[in-house]
């Protein structure tokens, strides 16, 4: 197992290399000059050239990439062109809102979707099954930003129960923190819950038709015991996979949700940095999200062992 984990961590380097090459190339192909953006229209060409030299932008593109990627492997993404601090520090300052939003949304999706998917499978083709699937399809079909705007109109504007946007640190005021995070969590989690519920239902239907499940029923075991102890555990592996993919997707989906709800997280920082052509921040944010996604999928692979004892890594 240890050898497998080490191999997977080493594979993180080529993955980050590919991601880094893509984002580095795209940022440098984007029209515009960071030096001109920073100095403004009234800056002279000499001032622009001096700034480009100080930032290393006068070097050939391959040299710039090698220098940047080598530093990135040491978690040094350089300095922001506009914030006035190292990129790593800027990312850490914005990590809490995004991380908590993704965690809350994933928890909401799991708590809602897994029971709904199991119940829909056990009561397949019933009115309850159809109702649950209509709701889950709605979660997948409705764009998250539009659903978020509807929630703001209802709970913030019409009813006045919750704030329409903003963020309060959890250590400063936990109650206000959860009030501000409730609508973003529902918005981001609803879409994920719809996809997860449909997957759980589909997987459970396949498992419930297996011979060992029918045998368990024929022995007179209670339906709840058969469903939870026999069927659901064997249906859990594909569910774990989609949970991992969903969490990784939430980090990317937070870009839209944080913009809608004015949350100062990584998503808003990335949008602002793209607009201002703050290349070091954009590259650092994308690389960080890519690394987190790879680590999340590694964790999912390790959880397979505990769900299904037949799976062993590095046993050969």
| Number of helices in the DSSP assignment | 13
CATH topology of the largest domain: MetI-like fold
SS class:
mainly alpha
Mean pLDDT: 80
> What is the CATH level 1 assignment of the largest domain?
Mainly Alpha
Shape: globular
Q: Give the termini separation.
A: 11 Å
Main beta sheet strand tally, sense and closure: none
Superfamily (CATH H level) name of the largest domain? MetI-like
Percent of residues in β-strands = under 5%
What is the ordering of alpha helices and beta strands? HHHHHHHHHHHHH
Number of strands: 0
Low-confidence stretches: none
Query: What is the helical fraction, as a range of percent?
Result: over 70%
What's the architecture of the largest domain, going by CATH?
Orthogonal Bundle
Fill in the keyword field for this structure.
316 residues; MetI-like fold; 2 domains; 13 helices
Provide a descriptive summary of the structure in words.
With 316 residues, this protein is mainly alpha-helical. It has 2 domains: 71 residues, no CATH class; 217 residues, MetI-like (MetI-like fold), CATH 1.10.3720.10. The protein has 13 helices and no strands. Helix 5 packs across helix 8 and helix 11 runs antiparallel to helix 13. The protein starts with a helix and ends in a 9-residue tail after the last helix. The model has no long low-confidence stretch (mean pLDDT 80).
């Amino acid at each position: 197992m240890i050898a497998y984990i080490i191999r997977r961590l080493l594979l993180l380097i080529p993955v980050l290399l590919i991601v880094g090459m893509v984002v580095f190339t795209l940022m440098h192909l984007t029209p515009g000059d960071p030096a001109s953006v920073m100095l403004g229209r009234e800056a002279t060409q000499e001032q622009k050239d001096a700034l480009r030299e100080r930032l290393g932008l006068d070097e050939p593109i391959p040299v710039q990439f090698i220098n940047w990627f080598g530093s990135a492997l040491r978690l040094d993404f350089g300095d922001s062109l506009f914030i006035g601090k190292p990129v790593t520090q800027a990312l850490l300052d914005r990590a809490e809102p995004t991380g908590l939003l993704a965690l809350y949304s994933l928890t909401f999706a799991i708590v809602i979707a897994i029971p709904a998917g199991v119940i829909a499978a056990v009561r397949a083709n019933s009115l309850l099954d159809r109702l649950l699937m209509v709701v889950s399809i709605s979660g997948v079909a409705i764009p998250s930003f539009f659903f978020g705007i509807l929630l703001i109109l209802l709970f913030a504007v019409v009813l006045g129960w919750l704030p329409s946007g903003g963020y309060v640190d959890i250590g400063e005021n936990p109650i206000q923190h959860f009030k501000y995070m409730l609508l973003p969590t529902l918005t981001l989690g609803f879409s994920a819950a719809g996809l997860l519920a449909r997957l759980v239902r589909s997987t459970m239907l396949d498992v419930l038709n297996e011979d060992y499940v029918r045998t368990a029923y024929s022995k007179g075991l209670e339906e709840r015991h058969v469903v939870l102890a026999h069927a659901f555990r064997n249906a859990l592996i594909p569910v774990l996979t989609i949970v991992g993919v969903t969490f990784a997707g939430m980090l990317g989906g937070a870009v839209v949700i944080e913009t809608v709800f004015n949350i100062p997280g990584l998503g808003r920082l990335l949008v602002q940095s793209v607009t201002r052509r703050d290349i070091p921040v954009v590259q650092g944010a994308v690389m960080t999200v890519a690394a987190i996604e790879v680590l999340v999928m590694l964790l999912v692979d390790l959880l397979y062992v505990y769900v299904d004892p037949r799976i062993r890594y590095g046993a050969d």
